[in-house]
């Protein structure tokens, strides 16, 4: 792809255009030189994700292996990481919706990949070398899931039907979870003989606000339905069907994308930091950031907009 075509793509970004995006397409326009754009011509396309920009400053990331129920194979683990790292610094992105194509949100980790891993491990007899292979793999998968939490932009997950195993890891790393009435969730790791190791055990108890419920779900691997997910706080809204779910998630993303990106991204940073720290540490953290941020153009502009009842202030890209 030439630089001019790439620029055209970037200009289209805040409009309703749906494309399979390359990693290079997701870089900020102002950071692209022709040398950097070059990989876009020859670089790979995501094979397991479809990226679109349905609203201004809103990116939609769709898990896309529908014939395998969006089971997360090695390629998808890597592409999730690459995608969210790209969106983290993309100034045209202020909020992200994650949904999935086909019958279910995701059937969890790709079990065929797991079988192949067994074969790969069997190639060496040395336990330390087997351990290194596993260490690298688990770290990659943990990093992939954690890119949603680390991404400064709010991430909204929109779940329909099954959200199993690694799917629960993924959604609990997001900021906001919506689902359909027919959605169900399952921390199924225990059923396949393992302790969940890429985030659910750390994040689910905080998401549902109950160690008792989280432990029950993780020890038993039982299904829990949308109604229970809602009453426990795992999801904050339930929609009748996938269409209304997606439109609700996109409307929320659009609302967030209209606010000051400095305010929104600092809010995410502070709330995520405060999950792991005392109230006083959280207050110290936000004071340090806001002594700069309260001098920003966004603050002056937003305060002026409140005074003049202008409900659509336009904020510079971040
Ligand atoms: C380092 C480790 C990091 C993370 C670990 C995470 C652990 C987990 O994720 S544990 C959870 C593992 N997942 C499962 O156990 C779910 C297995 N699938 C199912 O139980 C069912 O498919 C279903 C989700 C209940 C849906 O059933 P149904 O609607 O009847 O569809 P199927 O006919 O079963 O499936 C269609 C098609 O998809 C393939 N498939 C389904 N799940 C997986 C999977 N997890 N991995 C790979 N492939 C999967 C299934 O084989 C079918 O493929 P065909 O080619 O059409 O046969």
From TrEMBL:
It catalyses: (3E,5Z)-octadienoyl-CoA = (2E,4E)-octadienoyl-CoA; (3E,5Z,8Z,11Z,14Z)-eicosapentaenoyl-CoA = (2E,4E,8Z,11Z,14Z)-eicosapentaenoyl-CoA. GO terms for molecular function: delta(3,5)-delta(2,4)-dienoyl-CoA isomerase activity. Pathway: Lipid metabolism; fatty acid beta-oxidation. GO terms for biological process: fatty acid beta-oxidation. It holds the Pfam family ECH_1. Keywords: Acetylation, Fatty acid metabolism, Isomerase, Lipid metabolism, Peroxisome. Its main location: other. GO terms for cellular component: mitochondrion; peroxisome. It is found in: Peroxisome. Belongs to the enoyl-CoA hydratase/isomerase family. Isomerization of 3-trans,5-cis-dienoyl-CoA to 2-trans,4-trans-dienoyl-CoA. This is Delta(3,5)-Delta(2,4)-dienoyl-CoA isomerase, mitochondrial. It comes from Drosophila ananassae.
